[in-house]
Amino acid sequence: MSTDTDTEGVSIADRIVGAWELVEYSTTSDSGKVDYPLGPDARGLIIYSADGFMSAQIMRPDRTRYRSPNVHSGEVSERSEAAGGYLAYSGPYRVDVDNSAVWHEMAVSLYPNWIGDNQKRNVRFDGDMMTLSSDPLVFRTTTLSPALVWRRTTSRSEQAAS
Questions:
Q1: Euclidean distance between CA atoms 56 and 117, whole angstroms
Q2: Does residue 89 contact residue 110 with C-beta atoms inside 8 Å?
Q3: Taken in order 69, 73, 77, 82, is the CA torsion positive or negative?
Q4: Where would I find the H helices in the chain?
């Protein structure tokens, strides 16, 4: 399957728009070992708007709840654990058709070092599934290839009709 258009000739720019639910977030090491940074049951959403903005939220589902009901009153250890199990950023995006990629500009991010970054995600479609991957990253002494598999969500009106 071509990555810049699907079998019906729909471009990446048109096909990517909408909401997608996380199916799997994994990294594969240069030795072939597969790991799940936020666990095998990680949950998430990524949304691409038609006017060029995106938002990604990914979390480990078993994060411990704060003892306090106030969102800003968690203990330092609670906030650290909660943030350690969460990945979030949003900002403009642009499609790079020539390289079958989408570039995410981190306007806001839970991880402050990403703010202002432009990061490339390679895009591959298969039916209602989309895989986003990045070029290999060196982490300590290991080279890792991250991949996130997403399934297109059904619209709220489609959910209500079923």
A1: 14
A2: yes
A3: positive
A4: 12-15, 76-84, 156-161
Q: What is the pLDDT of residues 44-85, one digit of tens each?
A: 999 999 999 999 999 999 999 999 998 888 899 999 999 999
- Joined together, the tokens standing for residue 83 give 């943030």
Q: How far apart are CA 47 and CA 58, in angstroms?
A: 12
pTM of the model: 0.88
List the beta bridge partners of residue 125: 130
Spacing of C-alpha 54 from chain mean position: 10
Give the C-alpha separation, 19 to 7, whole Å.
Answer: 21
**How far apart are the C-alpha atoms of 6 and 127, rounded to whole Å?**
9
Residue in the block written with tokens 């306007």: 107
Q: Are 11 and 2 in contact (CB under 8 A)?
A: no
Q: Whose CA is closest to 102, among 1, 26, 3?
A: 3
